[in-house]
Write a structure and sequence with these properties.
Length: 158
């Protein structure tokens, strides 16, 4: 079961519990119970949980998986127009393009405002130069157009 239906059910039940606690809190103030201020805290926290569960359930979007791609960590993101991901040393050449595309598809465009409207995703690998020394090389590059949502993938020349 996906996370969002579970969270919507939890939000509903937490909302009902918060409503019941609110009634109990109001009764506590009129009856001048000693725990009335604790009830305020419990009611507030339960309301916050209900709102948080509902907000997360509405905004949740699962990660996109591209066939042939490998999950890689992001090593640099300037928050605007450039993202760099690190490829593992044993990444097969046929997985370079799909991996760069997968990273681009899973980017959240919120807050990104590149001047040309394109976010560049570079898949970086390390090429050994001599014993114990390596230099970074771009294995593949994916350009994500934020306006149209299109992705173009460029592989390095072999």
């Amino acid at each position: 079961m996906a996370a969002d239906p579970i969270l919507l059910v939890a939000a509903k039940w937490l909302g009902l519990a918060a409503g019941g606690l609110l009634l109990l809190t109001v009764m506590g103030f009129f009856a001048r119970w000693g725990i009335r201020f604790r009830l305020v805290g419990v009611t507030s926290f339960t309301t916050l949980l209900a709102i948080s569960c509902a907000a997360f359930a509405i905004s949740y979007s699962p990660r996109i998986s591209v066939p042939g791609a490998v999950t890689v960590p992001l090593v640099f993101d300037n928050g605007s127009d450039l993202v760099v991901a690190a490829a593992p040393p044993d990444l097969p050449p046929e997985a370079e393009g799909p991996t760069a595309e997968q990273v681009a598809r899973n980017l959240r465009p919120t807050g990104r405002a590149p001047s040309d409207g394109v976010v560049r995703v570079k898949l970086r690998g390390l090429e050994p130069v001599e014993n114990g020394v390596a230099r970074p090389v771009v294995l593949a590059e994916a350009d994500l157009d934020l306006k149209s949502g299109e992705i173009s993938v460029k592989l390095r020349p072999s």
